Amino acid sequence: MFLRDLWYFGALSSELKPGQHLHRELLGQAILFGRDHEGRAFAMKDVCPHRGILLSGGKMQCHDGESQVECPYHGWRFRTDGSCAAIPSLTADQTEAMDLTKIRTRTFPLHEDQGLVWIYYGSDENPEPTIAPPKLDLPEGEKPRMVIHDVFNCHVDHAVIGLMDPAHIPFIHRQWWWRSGKSVHDKAKQFGPVGRGFSMLPHVPSKNSYLYALLGEPQTEIRFEIPGLRTEYVKAGGKHFTGFTAVTPTNENSTAITIVVYWDHPLLHITPNFLIRKGIEIFVGQDREAVNAQQIGLAYDPDLMLIHDADVQAKWYFALKRAWTKHRETGEAFVNPVKPATLRWRS
Question: Considering 26, 114, 239, 344, which has the largest number of Cβ atoms within 10 A of its Cβ?
Answer without folding.
Answer: 26
